[in-house]
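Deliverable D4.2, example record:
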Amino acid sequence: MKERNLKYHINWKGAWKEMRNERMKKLKISYDKEFFLKYADGFSKRGKFNDYEFGRKSVEILNNILDHNSEVLEIGSGPGTITIPLARTAKKIVCIEFNELNIKYLNANLKENNLDNVEVINQNWNKINDEEIKNKFDLVYCSHFLWQIEDPVILLKRMENASRKYCAIIQPCGRDDIIKEIFEKVSNQKYTGQFEPDADYFVYIILREWGRLVKLRYFKYTLEMNIEEYLIYVSSFIGKFVTIDVVVKEKIKDYLLEKSENGKFTKIDNAIVMWWAIK
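Output generated by the structure prediction step:
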């Protein structure tokens, strides 16, 4: 597709770079050597909650551009949060996933749901040959993936290259107050959006400057976690700014115990689905 030749552009690149640098900081976790294994397990459980609620609602929104003959490319599938409900609708999904732990859970979740129409490719998306995937898919999408990309313009161009009909971006919106409160409590810093997931507005700016007619919808989804699961979830954000050692871990755990209901948390979060046609 062509891009518009505009005299003026919104200068978003500096903000993207600074925000991405914060979100991609290395985690500093010292209280548990198995933290990353436990995080991967929790990631899969969150995706599966309430019969893949996040994925189901995403697919329901996209159903008007999907049918049983649709061939889909998913960039960064994770453990199958969207893959599983989408595979119940689409003819075939090709998943590009670099993390081997995610692939382990994805394959287990596919087997658990008796789905055999998903091809999983263990490769870095940046290493995929664009000519080999050119115009091969009815839908190309990514979810929870934007901050992993240095340049969203390149991502969007490559997505459009691989699609013959549609592209989509699915992204969580905002963090809950408890995570923000804990961050301020253990870091002595004011929370100013250090780990907000919102990257969709950068994509919207780029696509509208290109002249794409972007459709979007928001939805709410529910998550439930116990104290230990929520501790790992919280630490995965705060640990980029503060070393989570045994002392800090106990501070976080005590705070969570105060805020929990019988040792459990039920939280309602928001997400956005953006999609546009490839003409």
